[in-house]
Design a protein that fits this description.
Blueprint: E1 2-5, E2 12-15, E3 38-41, E4 47-50, E5 57-59, E6 65-73, E7 76-87, E8 96-109, E9 115-123, E10 141-148, E11 159-162, H1 169-179, E12 188-195, H2 202-205, E13 211-215, E14 225-231, E15 240-243
Antiparallel strand pairs: 1-2, 1-15, 3-14, 4-5, 4-7, 6-7, 6-13, 7-12, 8-11, 8-13, 8-14, 9-10, 9-12
Length: 251
């Protein structure tokens, strides 16, 4: 069971779980806030990375829609990753980041694989970071497994997709702000969405253009969003959680 306390003395059961012999994610955040304090729109410099026969290159600059997965070429599948860029905002004085969420608009064409969320860097410009997901060693950090999967509606339906609050995006950005207490702006976050497999594997996927498609920062109404929630640690109450084995009632 999960218990919550504001004083480490009095505890209240907030969730009761029964084991199922499978991995589970427990989200302590209490869900999405009623409103987000800061919303950053995606940058017009969003792009895709092409596998390009083993020499990854930037493609789809200025496009309103980015492909990730496979792109059918003559006789073979090219691989694509989508990269979304956000300028990290300056937080108000005496505040700290509590949670962050990525929101995007996407659709699917034939894809049966999962799409994962990675961060591939933070830097002081929007110049592309070319870090294709099959390149080894990987320079990025995986933030969430299965951001999208085969259950996403197919073309032409577009769906709003939100990253899990139990993923690593919040902690990654909290670490950034904690490590840069005097941050004055001008740094850009690069998030990569990529297939969980090799989308060019014709044995598994076929030469049939299986991919997801994400609206980029060039699509004003449907541009990706980075949503942030903040608090003032001096005035906000702290919450503590603990996990405990046991039963809340008799069988």
């Amino acid at each position: 069971m999960v218990e919550k306390s504001s004083d480490l003395v009095n505890w209240t059961v907030t969730a009761d779980y029964e084991g199922s012999a499978s991995q589970s994610t427990i989200d302590f955040t209490g869900g999405e806030p009623t409103s987000w304090d800061i919303i950053v729109a995606g940058n017009a410099a969003d792009y895709a990375i092409s596998a390009n026969g083993g020499s990854p290159s930037v493609v789809q600059l200025n496009d309103t829609q980015l492909r990730l997965g496979a792109k059918k070429e003559s006789g073979f599948n090219d691989g694509r990753d989508a990269v979304l860029i956000f300028e990290l905002p300056v937080l108000p004085a005496s505040s700290e980041l509590t949670m962050a969420q990525l929101e995007l608009v996407a659709t699917r064409q034939y894809a049966q694989f999962d799409a994962d969320l990675w961060v591939i860097g933070i830097q002081g410009s929007t110049s592309p970071i070319i870090d294709y997901h099959e390149t080894q060693p990987q320079g990025g950090t995986k933030l969430q497994d299965r951001l999208m999967d085969h259950m996403l509606a197919g073309i032409p339906t577009q769906t709003t997709v939100k990253s899990s609050l139990a993923g690593e995006l919040s902690s990654y950005l909290r670490n950034f702000y904690a490590s840069n207490p005097g941050y004055a702006g001008g740094q850009y976050l690069f998030l990569r969405v990529n297939a969980a497999i090799d989308p060019r594997d014709q044995t598994l996927q076929g030469n049939d253009d299986r991919n997801f498609r994400i609206q980029s920062g060039n699509d004003g109404a449907n541009a990706p969003k980075l949503k942030l929630s903040i608090q003032n640690p001096a005035t906000e109450a702290k919450e503590f959680y603990r996990l405990r084995y046991g039963k809340t009632s008799a069988l």
